């Protein structure tokens, strides 16, 4: 396990598992830069958030990918509302191994999905570690050319036509499944579009693309892809509406 991954998991265990406000001083940088809509910059807002976590709160870590000084956690927050929240949390660590910057996106967990797959199930550990850079390049090109550029004629250059497991709750498996979901969204007056890619985080066969787009309004889009033999074979996502106001001046991205 990489130092970045183990550090983030230890920090999450103490902050969100033990609900220990004093852990903020161990794991969070003094100049902590926040992009989440849930807290402001620095240690104190996070300390208050941890101290105020409800009795039934629980953070379930599903998978983690580490890329240099950055780690992305795909998990579920329980006990924070009427339904659990599926989340991506991204942390950048400083040279001292403390979290220096944080981004996230959250969406309600749904019991029923079109594909029959949950929003988080599937493989949890990165494999094909020697293919990290090749997979990063493939997914980055796909994101720029297809998601942002809108060149849907190139879909089969990047996505497997044999197997593509879908975890978006409104889409069935395969290329046709997502195309049908996109058509339905367009009919509902909320066509999905991607405007700009902000970060690409990769470890082995897992590649996370953080971008901004439109889906009935401005959204933060976190798309996680699993790549096998040079093609995308699995997809998870969280799309979160961009709030009108944030408790800081850093933006969501």
From TrEMBL:
Residues 12-102, 139-235 form the SnoaL-like domain. Pfam families: SnoaL_2. SUPFAM superfamilies: NTF2-like (SSF54427). One of its GO terms (biological process) is polyketide metabolic process. It comes from the Bacteria. This is SnoaL-like domain-containing protein. It comes from Streptomyces phyllanthi.
């Amino acid at each position: 396990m990489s130092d970045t991954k183990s550090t983030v998991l230890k920090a999450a265990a103490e902050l969100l598992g033990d609900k220990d406000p004093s852990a903020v001083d161990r794991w969070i940088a003094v100049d902590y830069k926040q992009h989440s809509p849930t807290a402001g910059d620095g240690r104190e807002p996070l300390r208050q958030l941890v101290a105020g976590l409800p009795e039934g709160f629980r953070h379930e870590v599903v998978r983690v990918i580490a890329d240099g000084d950055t780690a992305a956690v795909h998990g579920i927050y329980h006990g924070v509302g009427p339904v659990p929240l599926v989340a991506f949390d991204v942390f950048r660590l400083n040279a001292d191994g403390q979290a220096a910057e944080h981004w996230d996106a959250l969406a309600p967990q749904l019991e029923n999905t079109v594909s029959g797959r949950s929003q988080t199930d599937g493989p949890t550990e990165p494999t094909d570690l020697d293919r990290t850079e090749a997979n990063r390049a493939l997914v980055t090109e796909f994101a720029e050319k297809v998601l942002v550029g809108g060149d849907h004629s190139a879909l089969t250059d990047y996505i497997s036509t044999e197997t593509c497991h879908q975890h978006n709750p409104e889409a069935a498996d395969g290329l046709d499944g997502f195309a049908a979901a996109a058509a339905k969204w367009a009919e509902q007056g909320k066509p999905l579009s991607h405007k700009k890619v902000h970060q690409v985080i990769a470890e082995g066969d897992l590649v996370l693309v953080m971008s901004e787009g439109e889906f009935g309004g401005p959204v933060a889009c976190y798309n996680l892809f699993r790549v096998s033999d040079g093609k995308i074979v699995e997809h998870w996502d969280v799309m979160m509406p961009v709030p009108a106001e944030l408790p800081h001046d850093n933006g969501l991205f």
